[in-house]
Amino acid sequence: MSRKTLILIGLLLLALATASCAGPEGPEGPAGPAGPEGPAGEAAMAAAGTGAEYISSAACGECHTDTYDVFMKSGHPYKLNPVVDGQPPEYPFTEVTELPEGYTWDDISYVIGGYNWKYRFVDNEGYVITGVPGARGDGNTDYIGQFNFANPNVPGKEEASSAAYHPGEEHKYDCGSCHTTGYDPNTPTEGMPGIVGSWAEPGIQCEECHGPGSLHAADPRGVALDIERDSALCGECHLRGGSEDVDSGGGFIKHHEQYEELFQSKHITINCVVCHDPHTGVIALRKANAEDASVDVTRTSCENCHFNEAAYQDSAIHPAAAECISCHMPRVTKSAVGNIDMFTGDIRTHLMAINPTQIGQFTEDGKNALSELGLNFACRSCHVDGGSATVKTDEELIEKAYGYHDRPASP
């Protein structure tokens, strides 16, 4: 046996003997002095969760002044607007001038909408106004309860108009989940039997997306608010029913269906905030910069991703006369007004893929939109009698649309 081996065996036996002779562990000694404080990590930022209360967007604006000023020009805060001391609500770009027959501002508690497309009213008992005072639910089907703003983008709707809305019905206001902040469906609003539930603040305000802010306001550096960028948050309201089908009626897609529209295509893989700044909006940016058409109204442009398609179009006219969204995001949706003969609603769709062999847009019963754009809306909002371009037959449209962005083969 080598000397090296003998040494190793001896060391092993010594270690075993020492371990077997060791006594019980002694008591813990006193703690040493504290070391220097290290930098705060992510765990130091507590979420504003249970226990936080709603404090209002105005309170948020005391610190986040620039963001608040921009946000208050967008449409979100104006989904539901209180009438205070008999005075109409104020809006950044519009004015509510019409009242339903038989009512004064003293008879009205809220204006529904009024920011851009249309407005309706809630009476002092919380019911949507659908008839003259004292005649709620009388069945009068001629009563006018909705007022539409003039819309220069819709042919024939360049002047303000009006429409019936559930005329003659007793219609409770049950839209709080998407028109208010901090909505509670289980707590009634005192003195207003027509309102379903209650809320912390009318309109879609800061805290509807970021969560109640009292803890954050008390400790801004120690308590972080939610910053949710997933499209599912937007989809809580920009959705009508399930995400599988896009509901339609009257020859148009129904409004607030952007989320299920995106589900019809690969665009669902990107978040809404890639294109949209959640603190402003397309309408706000266009109206605020009405004299400068070069101002971007989205965070990115189609050609940033679809650069090959932007680089080649089988037309010398379209690149100068139309934008990508003219064909790929036509106004298929109707909120207030539309012109069915001109294939023009008042909101651009988020269905973007064009099927060059599809003419129509809806299922046979008209209740759902097809997953891809047909050529009626993609092309005929221009190529129609009275439109801005030459009238085309179905066959001519299909021939032009098929392979529109395909580069010709090299000779």
TrEMBL record:
InterPro entries reported in the protein's UniProt record: Cyt_c-552/4 (IPR023155), Multihaem_cyt_sf (IPR036280), Multiheme_Cytochr_ET (IPR051829)
Region entry Disordered, spans: 24-43
Residue ranges of every copy of the Cytochrome c-552/4 domain listed in the record: 160-211
Pfam families: Cytochrome_C554
Residues annotated as signal peptide: 1-22
Keywords noted in UniProt: Signal
Entry keyword annotation includes Signal: yes
PANTHER family tied to this protein: C-TYPE POLYHEME CYTOCHROME OMCC, DISSIMILATORY SULFITE REDUCTASE SIRA
UniProt-recorded name of the protein: Cytochrome c-552/4 domain-containing protein
Species the sequence originates in: Candidatus Desulfolinea nitratireducens
